[in-house]
Specification:
The structure is a homodimer of 321-residue chains.
Chain A (H helix, E strand, L loop, with lengths): L1 E5 L8 H13 L4 E6 L1 H11 L7 E4 L10 H7 L4 H10 L5 E4 L3 H12 L11 E4 L7 E4 L9 H19 L5 E5 L10 H12 L4 E6 L11 E3 L2 H20 L5 H4 L9 E2 L7 E3 L6 H16 L2 H19 L1
Parallel strand pairs in A: 1-2, 1-4, 2-3, 4-11, 6-9, 7-8, 7-9
Antiparallel strand pairs in A: 5-6, 10-11
Chain lengths: 321, 321
C-alpha cells in the first residue's frame, strides 16, 4: 500500500509533516510513504532531525500552494505543486491514498477535478467526529464542503456517513439522525422538513429521526446529517467552547476529547479515491492519525463500498419512480 | 407599573410561578404583579407556602394551555386560558408587560395575534445571551422564532439586537456580527452572503463583519445575527455541552454561566409590547429574573425605541430606493 503525504501542507509544514511521516513509518512499517514536496527542504529537515529519509519515496515538487490561496486558481497556476502532483499520482493509481493538512479548499477542488465524485453523488462532503461519553464519536456531516444543500444531498450524505461509521467503529447498522430544531417530524426549516421525509424513505440507512443540538453528544444517533453551513458552525462552536475551557485550565477527560489533535483529519467522502484533509495546525502526532485513517480506508475498500452503495441507491430510486 | 405573570406556564407551574412571584414582589415592591391562573390553585399554593396572596392581583382564568399543545389551535380553543387572558390585558394596556414559562409557540403566536409586529418588521425574533469571559453576554438572535429567514429579516434583527444590547448592557454602539463560516465577506451560504451586503449598508448598526462559530464566546461582536434554525442549533449545542460537563462534576466559573437559570428568559423582540418567554423548566428564582427583565424593558421604553428605530430605518430605505 502506498500513502501519499503532502509534505508542504499545513501551518507547520514541512517540518511537522516530515516528522509525522517518520512517526507514521514506525507505526506502519509495511506502508510505503510517498512524500510530495521540495526534496531539498525535506532532506534538510530529515538531516536536522536525525530522520533516515531513505525510508520514504520523495517526489520533488517545486511549487507550493499556500493556505490562503484561491483553491481553483492555485491548482491551475501551480501544476507542479505538491498538491497537484499528489492528486495526479492518486488519480493514476501510483498511490492508494493522499493526505494533506494544507489548503482545505484546494483539497476539495483537487478531489473533484482529479478524482470526480462517485457516480450517483452530486457532491462530496466532510465530516467530524463528535465526542460522546460512553461510545465512539458520533459522525456529523457535512461540516463545510457544501454551504447550501438540498434534501437529496443530505439523504446521500446519510449513506456515506453510515458506511464510514461501519468502517471506523464497526457499527453494523449505525443509527442515522437529522440535526433539527425539534424532535417531531414536522419541525424544522424548509430543508430539514423535506429531508426528514426523504430519510424516512431511504432504505439504505437506519433512520432514527431528528436530533436536537443538545443531543449530538449523546447516543441518539451514530451519524448525524446536516447542511455544511450548520455543521461548520456546530463544530466551530464546540471548538470555541473547548478552547475557552481548556485555556482556563479546566481538566476533564471528556472535555479533552474535543482536542482536534486526537483525530486524523477527515476523509473527503464521495470521491473516487481516499483523500484526507487535516487541520491547518496539524503537528507530527496527528499526521500519524491521518496515515492510520488512510490505511483503514484503503484496507476496508471504503471507496468501493461507497461506489456500490450509491449504484444500488440510484437503481432503487429509478425502480420506485 | 403592572407586570403580568402566567401562573400556569412552565413544567413546575403553578407552584414555582407563585413562589417566583412572591420573591419578585420582595425584589420589586413598587411593581404591581398580576397573576393569571386558576385562583383556587394560586391561593392554595400561597396558603401552603406561607405566601401572602393579597400582595398580588389575581385574575382567575379557568383554562390552561399545556406545554405540548398546538400553539394556534390552543389559543383559539382556550380563550379563557391564562395565556389568552394575559395577552388580552397586555393588548388593552391593563398591564405593561407579560411573562410566561409556558408553551413558547403559543407565546409567539399570542404575541403576533394580540400585539402585532412593530410596523416595518415582518417577524419578531428571540435571542439568547452567550456567556463571555471578560464582558457581558453577547446576544445571539434569532434563536428559533424563524426557522427560515431572508437577508432582510437578519438586517432588521441586527437593529433589534443593537437596541436590546444598549438597554441590557448600556452598550452605546454595540458591535454587530454575522454568524458565518468564514471571516471573509464572500464566504458563507446564499443567505449569509446576501445578508453580509445588507448589513454593510445598514446605517442603523455598527457592523463589524462575519463571526465564526468558535468566536461567539469572544469580544468580536456584542450582537450576532443568524437565521432561527442555526441560532437554535447553536444554543442547544451550548446547552448540551454545558450539561454534559456539569453532570460530570466539572466546576468552573465560566462554565457555570451557561446554566440557563441565571437568565430571565427572552423578550419576544419586535412586537408592540414587552413579552417574555422563559424556559419550560424555570423555577422560582428565575421568575424573578424574568420580572426584572420586564421592569427593565418597561422602564427603558424598549418597545418605543424599536418602533422609532424601525420607522427611521424604513424611511431611510425608501429615500435610498
Amino acid at each position: 500500500m502506498k500513502v501519499g503525504i503532502d509534505a508542504m501542507g499545513g501551518d507547520y509544514a514541512p517540518l511537522e509533516a516530515v516528522k509525522g511521516a517518520c512517526l507514521a513509518k514506525s507505526a506502519f512499517p509495511v506502508v510505503e510513504l510517498v512524500l510530495f514536496g521540495r526534496k531539498e527542504d525535506i532532506l534538510s529537515i530529515a538531516g536536522a532531525e536525525g530522520i533516515d529519509a531513505s525510508v520514504f519515496t520523495i517526489i520533488d515538487t517545486p511549487e507550493v500552494i499556500e493556505m490562503a490561496e484561491h483553491p481553483v486558481k492555485a491548482l491551475v497556476a501551480k501544476p507542479q505543486s505538491s498538491l497537484s502532483v499528489g492528486f495526479q499520482y492518486l488519480a493514476t493509481h501510483k498511490i492508494d491514498a493522499f493526505l494533506s493538512a494544507g489548503n482545505t479548499g484546494a483539497m476539495l477542488v483537487g478531489s473533484l477535478q482529479f478524482l470526480k465524485t462517485v457516480e450517483g453523488l452530486d457532491r462530496p462532503c466532510l465530516y467530524t467526529g463528535i465526542p460522546r461519553i460512553d461510545s465512539n464519536p458520533g459522525l456529523l456531516l457535512d461540516v463545510g464542503a457544501n454551504a447550501d444543500c438540498k434534501p437529496e444531498h443530505l439523504s446521500k450524505f446519510a449513506i456515506l456517513g453510515s458506511l464510514l461509521s461501519s468502517m471506523m467503529y464497526k457499527n453494523n447498522n449505525p443509527k442515522v439522525g437529522l440535526l433539527n430544531i425539534g424532535e417531531e417530524s414536522e419541525k424544522g426549516n424548509l430543508l430539514t422538513k423535506a429531508t426528514h421525509q426523504l430519510l424516512a424513505q431511504n432504505n439504505s440507512i437506519n433512520f432514527v429521526g431528528n436530533v436536537e443540538g443538545r443531543d449530538i453528544f449523546g447516543d441518539h444517533a451514530d451519524v448525524i446529517v446536516c447542511d455544511g453551513f450548520t455543521g461548520n458552525v456546530v463544530i466551530k462552536v464546540c471548538e470555541g467552547f473547548y478552547y475557552r475551557l481548556a485555556k482556563r485550565g479546566v481538566q476533564d477527560e471528556y472535555l479533552d476529547k474535543f482536542n482536534f489533535k486526537h483525530y486524523g483529519g477527515s476523509l473527503v467522502l464521495g470521491v473516487n479515491a481516499p483523500v484526507i484533509v487535516g487541520h491547518g495546525i496539524t503537528k507530527a502526532e496527528t499526521f500519524v492519525k491521518m496515515v492510520e485513517l488512510a490505511v483503514q480506508a484503503v484496507d476496508s475498500q471504503l471507496t468501493l463500498s461507497i461506489q456500490q452503495a450509491m449504484k444500488k441507491f440510484v437503481e432503487n430510486q429509478s425502480s420506485v419512480s
